[in-house]
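pasting for ref
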Amino acid sequence: MLFKLPLGFLSGLRVKVLNETSCLVSITHKWINQNPFKSMFWAAQGMAAEMSTGVLVMQAIEKSGVKVSMLVTHQEASFFKKATGKIHFSCNNGNEIAEAIQKSIKTKEGQLIVLKAVGVNEDGIVVSEFKFQWSLKVK
């Protein structure tokens, strides 16, 4: 990660769980990723949230055996509580990604898929929710 995503490495992003249907990424609030209000900067949360969706997309592409371009084309976020301590972002849309890739292979057209990542603090409270619209197209 240091060479491919240096800001993610410095911010403390870590993939904790990865399987075919879900991904869990953690990030810990610290000086380098905080805002002036002593909580985690929204962009740091966004990096962790996007990683939880993007890793699933990359895994599904690898498993498909075909070359697929991937691009975030839209993003929305909601914030519910200050993000402090360790925050875990989870995405559980792996099956939908595989279906979109198969549809793109079949139709030769790009597919749009919206993946949701939910950020939860150490007390189990949702602090933020991100939705990423990914464009997937077979090359």
